[in-house]
Amino acid sequence: MINQKLDIFDLKKIQINKTKAELENAGKQRQKDITSEMLGTFIPVNRNPVRTIQITEANMIRELLALRHQRMLASRFAFFRGTAELMEHDLKHQSQSNLPIIICGDAHVNNFGFYASPERKLLFGLNDFDEARIGNWESDLKRLLVSAELAGEENDFDRADLYRLLQVTTKTYRHTIKSANKMSLLQLFYFSFAYEDMGKAIESFGDISTQMQTVLNKVLKKSQRSNSEEIIQKMATVNNQGHLVFRDNPPRARHLSAIRYQQIVKGYQQYCENVRQDVRVLLANFHISDIIRYSVGVGSFGTRCYLIMLTGNDGSHLVLQVKEAMPLRYNMLSLPVQQVIKNGGIAGQRIVTAQRVLQSSSDRFLGSTNFGGRSYYIRQFRDMKESINVNKLDFESFQFYCQTCAYLLAMAHFQSPTAPMIRGYLKHQKKLDTLLADWALKYVEQVTVDFEQFKHAIMEGKLIS
């Protein structure tokens, strides 16, 4: 069993001294204790979604909450993306497999995307790890399924087709777990999923659609232009003193007080001391030209997020993103305040570790730091980073995309030493495809109810608008 009361990123929980066969057998035994039928049965929840959102937002920048809520009001799917804490609360009250692995914690369809390997190869995989922790594999899969249903309904896809898509997505996850279990440890460690792999498609998925091929080609071209110099061209200007600085665009983009500026400078210096040595040597060629607060995303909008403009001794530029590593929403709703603060102090390290494990290859500049009593992680900003707009896909392309996400989710999960337990649990469990599809549809009903209460709270002034 996973101890929910402690910090949920204790790697000792996945370092179990057993053989692969013993781990598989443990998974089979867990299937007897917590059956597929139990995982697929939605247990109704009773909580106040507005109050839960308020608890989360108490840690955010008040000035940004109105714009954050505006983004969440766009659709049920946007609301779902912005409220991971609600599903985390609800999953605790469902039957859980309690097979400990490192999970993403927020594996919805928009949290997969393209990014660059250190060799400048375009890869595809999970790209958000703010909620990463030791948890249950089905938590990630259920969030993926619910997001697929919500996004699919937004696209006006046929409900029967979507129901089959949910089943196929779980089937893809199961079959990938089976395949990963046959791979050697080093094969798993060196696994990567490049753009070319998507172009060829995964054999079991069938032929890639013409529309998806067109989308991938556009992503490839766009990613080649996505770098720090392009960001400088779009987001920077020359000020009255003749210095290159970021443009203000309040409330989303705003320059800082002198005190906060110096805090970030010290945090950057701490980051430079702890980052990998080759990056540290490279950064010695750069100096800070400007820093700005710049908010991104939906779920992260309202957290403390900054951009650092670095200028090299050759006049080139590098833009780094400093992103607040919030205490896990998973914790904020259940743990004592002091325990949450303690866990939050190392949140940056948690996110960096999870990203390096779950991604096949991570940003060389990825690292963590602390300043102003908060934890942060640092990475390159938008370097070859692109995503697929699922709202513009036809059904065939959307299904291919969801299967690809399920495939990569399973491969990410299998980086944990305890992953053979999942294989043991899923063996001969075809019925789970339908059971989890049914669970996802039930949970979409819950999201709909929560979304309506959120809208009413905005209209009644209980939340900032």
Describe the model:
By secondary structure, the protein is α+β, with helices and mostly antiparallel strands. The protein has 2 domains: 11-225 and 385-459, no CATH class; 228-380, no CATH class. The chain contains 20 helices and 12 strands. The protein has helices at residues 20-33, 36-39, 49-57, 65-72, 76-82, 84-92, 137-154, 159-180, 185-189, 195-200, 210-225, 228-235, 258-274, 277-283, 329-332, 337-344, 347-358, 395-413, 420-426, 432-459, and strands at residues 100-103, 112-116, 122-126, 133-136, 236-238, 244-246, 253-254, 286-294, 305-312, 317-324, 367-371, 374-380. The strands form 4 sheets. It has a 6-stranded antiparallel β-sheet with strand order 7-8-9-10-12-11, sandwiched between helices. It has a two-stranded antiparallel ribbon with strand order 1-4. A hairpin with a 4-residue loop joins strand 9 (305-312) and strand 10. It starts with 19 loop residues before the first helix and ends in a 6-residue tail after the last helix. The model is unreliable at 1-6 (pLDDT under 50).
How is this structure best summarized?
The protein contains 20 helices and twelve strands. It has about 475 residues and is α+β, with helices and mostly antiparallel strands. Mean pLDDT is about 90; it is low at about 1-5.
Topology:
Layout: H1 20-33, H2 36-39, H3 49-57, H4 65-72, H5 76-82, H6 84-92, E1 100-103, E2 112-116, E3 122-126, E4 133-136, H7 137-154, H8 159-180, H9 185-189, H10 195-200, H11 210-225, H12 228-235, E5 236-238, E6 244-246, E7 253-254, H13 258-274, H14 277-283, E8 286-294, E9 305-312, E10 317-324, H15 329-332, H16 337-344, H17 347-358, E11 367-371, E12 374-380, H18 395-413, H19 420-426, H20 432-459
Antiparallel strand pairs: 1-4, 2-3, 5-6, 7-8, 8-9, 9-10, 10-12, 11-12
